[in-house]
């Protein structure tokens, strides 16, 4: 059987009302050529219609690529995803209730495909308890969607969430090379994702598997240990042009991201002395020597820079939720990949480790926070973006450090070793009630997890179910500089400490000594 077809033929295999699942992480692992052909077919013919589309990670470039190709009313009926922030067209359809939206934890979806393949009723997990995906709150619904995809169950006297499985009609996956039988290898891919699990899910549902690749090889020429998806699980192969087979959102191909060489990084450029660096320095004090670490996007990325500048990178292993170990996690359009990684494992296997408490500490972004320690990073007003891996990571890491500026939009500077607040921020982060619960402070307290909130002005800890002010920057006044910019009055520790003054100096040099002291 000749499995090689063009992208237009592949798009023609997708029928009205099909459930179509896609591998993706930004544009990594995404079959862009197939998505373009599917969009073109719909705009020219009006078919297919009313698809259910599912993917675990964010998918797109924030503009027109990725899942934005499918952002047309009528083409998609339902989206089940971990994140929509990179697909604004799809996000707008969800906001307008023109597409049913379900936003579920990324790690749960990464596991769901395996459970579909095994004909299991669903993923049973504690991930999501007490958050917006808990059916006692919102059940993961992003709009007026009505079907219940998440169910609260009791097993052995404990509460769990059951994330229901569903049949898959089409899996659209990606690899680097296919041989004539459809065996797939992934040598130039930056991530392994869920290709095998998705293919198995589709085949055991009676569906089809479409694989996009860059290269073709003769039958039997691929080393069997390099084959990530057996040809018996692949029905069709589409060979894409390089511009539609991006390694990441911004990179066509970098061998240091796929492990094909180790590039000289020349050292990570130190951050300038500003509030972000102060936050990163104070957060880095929570690193665990010998620990396994996850750094979120944005402000937490500064922890890696500080660790390198302070010469302590060798004391920890940085990981990403997409499966990389070691090296230097990439940022920007390459986020979720790593330069010079020591190992790259499948997405679902990484979340097995994360969900089981394998992370010693995680550093995640600080957005809306309330007095109970609840955090919201998934919904702001009527704009929904989803949790990504935030719920899995924050709920199961042994220690959680949220990092961010105290308010949004302020004008701050470091002057003479002190923080200067030149203009207060226009949007408060510490609010009476978060718009949506992405992290449950109550659940964290029940499980005894240490939780810190690190800002440039102060540090809070979650103590006995309340946000508690434990540290303040040198020279600041609690009433004027902290409480006046909050919507609630936090508990104030009886022994309020001053943040280390050295954090506000051009040179610090004290992190290694601090971390060694915490070992004993």
UniProtKB/TrEMBL annotation:
Belongs to the 3-oxoacid CoA-transferase family. It catalyses: an acyl-CoA + acetate = a carboxylate + acetyl-CoA. Transmembrane segments: none annotated. CoA transferase having broad substrate specificity for short-chain acyl-CoA thioesters with the activity decreasing when the length of the carboxylic acid chain exceeds four carbons. It comes from Billgrantia bachuensis. It comes from the Bacteria. Gene3D superfamilies: Glutaconate Coenzyme A-transferase (3.40.1080.10). Keywords: Transferase. Pfam families: CoA_trans. PANTHER family: ACETATE COA-TRANSFERASE YDIF. One of its GO terms (molecular function) is transferase activity. SMART domains: CoA_trans. Its EC number is 2.8.3.8. This is Acetate CoA-transferase YdiF. The keyword Transferase applies.
């Amino acid at each position: 059987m000749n499995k090689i077809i063009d992208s237009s033929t592949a798009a023609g295999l997708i029928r009205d009302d099909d459930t179509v699942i896609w591998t993706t992480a930004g544009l990594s692992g995404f079959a862009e050529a197939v998505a373009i052909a599917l969009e073109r077919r719909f705009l020219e013919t009006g078919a297919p219609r009313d698809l259910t589309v599912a993917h675990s990670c964010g998918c797109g470039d924030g503009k027109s690529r990725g899942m934005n190709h499918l952002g047309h009313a009528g083409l998609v009926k339902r989206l089940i995803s971990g994140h929509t922030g990179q697909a604004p067209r799809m996000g707008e359809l969800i906001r307008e209730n023109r597409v049913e939206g379900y936003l579920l934890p990324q790690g749960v979806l990464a596991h769901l495909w395996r459970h579909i393949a095994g004909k299991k009723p669903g993923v049973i997990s504690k991930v999501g308890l007490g958050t917006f995906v808990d059916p006692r709150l919102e059940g993961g619904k992003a709009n007026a969607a009505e079907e219940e995809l998440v169910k609260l169950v009791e097993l052995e006297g404990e509460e769990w969430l059951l994330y229901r499985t569903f049949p898959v009609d089409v899996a659209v996956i990606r690899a680097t090379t296919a041989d004539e039988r459809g065996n797939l290898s992934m040598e130039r891919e930056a991530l392994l994702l869920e290709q095998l699990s998705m293919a198995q899910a589709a085949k055991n549902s009676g569906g089809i598997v479409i694989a996009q690749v860059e290269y073709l090889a003769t039958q039997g020429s691929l080393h069997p240990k390099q084959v990530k998806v057996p040809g018996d699980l692949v029905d069709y192969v589409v060979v894409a042009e390089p511009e539609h087979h991006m390694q990441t959102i911004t990179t066509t191909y970098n061998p240091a991201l796929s492990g094909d060489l180790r590039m000289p990084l020349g050292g990570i450029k130190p951050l300038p002395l500003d509030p972000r660096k102060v936050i990163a320095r104070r957060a880095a004090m929570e690193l665990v020597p010998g620990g396994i670490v996850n750094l979120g996007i944005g402000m937490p990325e500064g922890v890696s820079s500080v660790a390198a500048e302070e010469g302590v990178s060798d004391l920890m292993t940085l990981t990403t939720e997409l499966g990389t170990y070691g090296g230097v996690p990439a940022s920007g359009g390459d986020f979720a990949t790593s330069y010079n990684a020591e190992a790259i494992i499948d997405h679902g296997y990484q979340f097995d480790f994360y969900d089981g408490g394998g992370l010693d500490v995680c550093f995640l972004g600080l957005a809306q926070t309330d007095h109970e320690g609840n955090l919201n990073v998934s919904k702001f007003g009527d704009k929904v973006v989803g949790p990504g891996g935030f719920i899995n990571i924050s709920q199961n890491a042994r220690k959680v450090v949220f990092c961010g500026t105290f308010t949004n939009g302020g004008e701050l500077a470091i002057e003479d070793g002190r923080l200067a607040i030149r203009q207060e921020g226009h949007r408060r982060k510490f609010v009476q009630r978060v718009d949506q619960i992405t992290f449950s402070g109550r659940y964290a307290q029940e499980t005894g997890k240490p939780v810190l909130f690190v800002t440039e002005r102060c540090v809070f800890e979650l103590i006995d179910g309340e946000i508690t002010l434990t540290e303040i920057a040198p020279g600041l006044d609690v009433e004027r500089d902290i409480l006046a910019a909050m919507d609630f009055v936090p508990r104030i520790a009886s022994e309020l400490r001053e943040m280390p003054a050295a954090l506000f100096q051009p040179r610090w040099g004290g992190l290694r000594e601090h971390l060694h002291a915490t070992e004993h």
